[in-house]
Amino acid sequence: MNAYAFDEIHIGHTESFEICITKEKMDSFLRITGDINPMHLDSQYAKKSGFESRIVYGMLSASFLSTFAGVYLPGKFCLLHEVALKFSNPVYVGDTLKITGRVSEKQEAYQQITIKMIIERIQREGGGGGIYV
């Protein structure tokens, strides 16, 4: 776990990590949320809707923004204030995601930073957004 203090962070500061989306992660997310949408549970249903297979919950992918902020940047001293999301492309079970964030703003008065995030599938983008900590 990183522990960047506000004065150690600069505009352009970048961190990233990778994580594989497993069936177990999908099953855990289902148990936590109760989201039984067949797009996430039934491969045949998802294929009939034009997807390769059942699609990963968008909010499961987005949940790794919390991991990013709380573990990587800024890490230990993080208090998440706001998240803005855009889901551009589907993610599938078995995909490895690369979560990257770059500091785009630093507000001295509030001791607050803005991080531009991107979540990428290996060889294809899966979504993006920003977080404010």
Automatic annotation (TrEMBL):
GO terms for biological process: fatty acid biosynthetic process. Residues 18-114 form the MaoC-like domain. Pfam families: MaoC_dehydratas. One of its GO terms (molecular function) is (3R)-hydroxyacyl-[acyl-carrier-protein] dehydratase activity. It comes from the Bacteria. SUPFAM superfamilies: Thioesterase/thiol ester dehydrase-isomerase. This is Dehydratase. It comes from Helicobacter enhydrae.
